[in-house]
Design a protein that fits this description.
11 helices; Aminopeptidase; single chain; two-stranded antiparallel ribbon; 8-stranded mixed sheet; alpha/beta; about 30% helix; 2 domains
């Protein structure tokens, strides 16, 4: 994989790495035709999975939750996402909804918004935050979040339950979720990137931070930061990780995929998520939706977990330069009780996803995919360890969608509708379990 990335300049979807019976490996990769063409001559067997079409794929018609959007192939564009959020906040559900304007405008001047569903913060009332669209090319995340909101509110308003495949959520469960919890939904964390992906480059991942002065113009790869490497958790990976660790981060501004940015939380979109967690201290759970791979992942992402040595932890600089290599001496500390809660929540979501149509999302620690720094879930979970006055946030990353879809990052919308349903089922079960657990270890009162 290092040869593919460093020598041939192609991107790798690491969760698709598989060992074949004959000892060879297969992995899904992507890149420009000029980068992919030489692979066969370099000894790789190459099979085309998806030829990414240019923007303007055509608008599909039909019946996704709330109706399909005006973007390519039926996905919602940036304006449609905002319109639907505003409609939910201003409509007949106004007593249990609030449209929250996040404070930092994006580099291209857009305003990011969240929708709160619930009666508002109150003692003992847990908050669940769901993020979508952190990575621009993962179009379906925003559609999932909006579809989830529309379905939940329609059921609450109609005093009825929700059935997804073999899973039934009763009217009482829907009522309790809306009345006794708060759900904070941010469907498009990265609207600039989404707009660019929908209109210019379907495989664009980052935000649209301007290229640094003096950077090569070229193909525009010097624009943007990977927002899911910009959060303030071990952000300075060159200091915190073993030099040989295969950490999926880059300090190079022109890296097309995983540039971490000039400093931690430098990006307005990341600052907006941080503000939301700071402003609404009832948020005790977080789910960040990504694609693809059918995974439900929990902390930590920097190294393998252990529950015996609290001083072997990200907060201890004595371990700098040791993290990120599997099967060595370093392990990241996580309390045994916290790990049990994380696995409990993940398996509840897994079962509900499976009940929708039989797809099994694998539950695993994030490090089992590859080592990372600066991610949203590890940042959210680390906050209370850095500052005990903050609420403990049990955080997850979900990779929706299968690698065998003909267009994995942009499934045909008929398939996307089915994915929306299965993730909605998983989110409903997750929120219900969060309501049963309540606020884990609330911060001390001043």
């Amino acid at each position: 994989m290092a040869d593919l990335v460093r020598v041939h300049g192609v991107g790798i979807v690491r969760q698709t790495l598989r060992r074949l019976p004959d000892g060879r490996y297969t992995v899904q990769a992507f890149g420009e035709p000029a980068d992919l063409a030489p692979l066969a001559g370099a000894g790789y067997a190459v099979e085309t999975v998806e030829e990414v079409a240019p923007p303007g794929l055509g608008t599909a018609e039909g019946g996704a939750p709330g109706g399909r959007g005006p973007g390519p192939a039926g996905y919602m564009d940036v304006e449609e996402v905002d319109r639907r959020l505003a409609a939910l906040a201003a409509g007949p559900d106004g007593a249990v909804t609030e449209l929250i304007e996040l404070p930092r405008p994006t580099w291209e001047g857009r305003t990011c918004r969240a929708l709160r569903i619930g009666r508002g913060p109150a003692p003992g009332r847990p908050g669940v935050c769901v993020l979508g669209g952190v990575h621009a090319r993962e179009w379906g995340s925003a559609d999932i979040v909006v579809g989830f909101a529309e379905r939940l509110l329609a059921a609450w308003r109609g005093k009825r339950g929700i059935t997804v495949g073999r899973r039934r959520f009763t009217a009482t469960q829907v009522l309790r979720l809306v009345e006794e919890a708060n759900v904070y939904l941010v469907p498009q964390v990265n609207p600039d990137g989404r707009h660019h992906s929908l209109t210019v480059d379907p495989m664009w991942r980052k935000n649209r931070r301007p290229a640094p002065r003096g950077a090569a113009a070229g193909d525009g790869t010097c624009v943007g930061v990977d927002l899911n490497r910009n959060f303030d958790f071990l952000w300075d990976f060159t200091a915190h990780f073993d030099p040989d660790a295969p950490v999926a981060c880059s300090a190079e501004p022109c890296h097309p995929e995983v540039y971490v940015g000039p400093e931690a939380a430098s990006e307005p979109e990341v600052a907006n998520v941080v503000w939301l967690l700071d402003r609404y201290s009832d948020i005790a759970y977080l789910v960040d939706l990504h694609s693809y791979g059918e995974l439900i992942m929990y902390s930590w992402g920097d190294d393998e977990n252990q529950s015996r040595r609290p001083t072997m932890a990200f907060t201890n600089a004595d371990w700098d330069g040791r993290r990120g290599r599997p099967d060595d001496d370093y392990r990241e500390y996580i309390g045994a009780a916290d790990r049990r809660l994380l696995v409990r929540l993940a398996t509840k979501m897994q079962a509900a996803v499976s009940a929708a149509r039989g797809r099994t999302y694998r539950v695993q620690q994030s490090m089992n995919l590859y080592p990372t720094a600066g991610t949203s879930d590890d940042y959210a979970f680390s906050r209370h360890l850095v500052d005990p006055s903050r609420t403990k946030v049990l955080a997850f990353t979900v990779e929706w969608g299968a690698e065998d879809n003909p267009t994995p990052f942009h499934p045909p919308y008929d398939e996307m509708v089915r994915i929306i349903a299965e993730v909605t089922s998983g989110l409903l079960a997750f929120c219900g379990e969060a309501l049963r657990i309540g606020v884990p270890d609330p911060p001390p009162q001043e």
